[in-house]
Specification:
Elements lengths: L3 E7 L4 H5 L12 H17 L5 E4 L3 H14 L3 E3 L16 H6 L3 H7 L11 H18 L4 E6 L1 H13 L15 E6 L4 E7 L6 H10 L1
Parallel strand pairs: 1-4, 2-3, 2-4
Antiparallel strand pairs: 1-5, 5-6
Length: 214
């Protein structure tokens, strides 16, 4: 039976990550550090998986531009995939995680009902369903191939919760660092091969500090 080797990457750093604000559908640019992270992960993928046959990305610029670094080095095109876009929370986009928790009771409402969606936003059930469906679709699109998909922290957490746990609340188990590499075998019996690996970022802060001093 065919399986597809799926390489999942969270986008590089954006300012909202630094400020601890929720940017779901908010279209944010990579920071300078985010661009450096994207270059590092591109070099890693080129070194470890030069035989990748396709690169997909959420259409938001932080994911698309991270994917573009990988595509450039592998001489491939980035294919937009709306199914792996981030979890959008509508009227509460841009709020801090602290205010979402304490002021708006966002997380308690989510924890009480997987179908709860803020105004103009999505529920975790909707996000988990679309992301896990998109991930599974790579099996029929690219049987027995290697595929890179660049997505977002919450979206990937919900996608893996759907794939491996059949429980949206299992998303709490999956925390993704910026440009971390997670590898999954998609097939009749999905397997998690590697999770949240950032060894390619070793020494990056020191390297950036050195460049600023020159």
């Amino acid at each position: 039976m065919n399986s597809t080797h799926l390489i999942l990457i969270r986008h590089g750093q954006i300012q909202a990550n630094v400020d601890k604000r929720w940017h779901g559908w908010t279209d944010s640019a990579l920071t300078d550090i985010g661009l450096s992270q994207a270059e590092r992960v591109a070099e890693r993928i080129h070194r470890e998986h030069p035989d990748v046959s396709a690169i997909y990305a959420s259409p938001l610029q932080r994911t698309f531009n991270t994917a573009q670094k990988i595509a450039d080095i592998l001489q491939l095109e980035v294919i937009p995939e709306p199914g792996i876009k981030e979890y959008g929370i509508g009227v509460w986009e841009g709020e801090t995680f602290s205010d979402l928790h304490k002021k708006f009771n966002f997380f308690s409402q989510v924890n009480a009902d997987p179908d709860y969606a803020p105004e103009d936003g999505e529920s975790i059930a909707q996000v988990g369903d679309r992301v896990s469906t998109a991930l599974q679709s790579f099996l029929s699109r690219h049987p027995s191939e290697k595929v890179v998909a660049v997505s977002h922290g919450a979206a990937l957490a919900l996608g893996l919760a759907g794939l491996f746990d059949q429980d949206w609340y299992a998303w709490d188990k999956y925390h993704f660092l910026n440009t971390s590499v997670t590898e999954v075998s998609i097939g009749p019996d999905p397997k998690l091969l590697r999770f949240n690996c950032v060894e390619h970022l070793a020494g990056l802060d020191d390297a950036l500090s050195s460049m600023r001093l020159k």
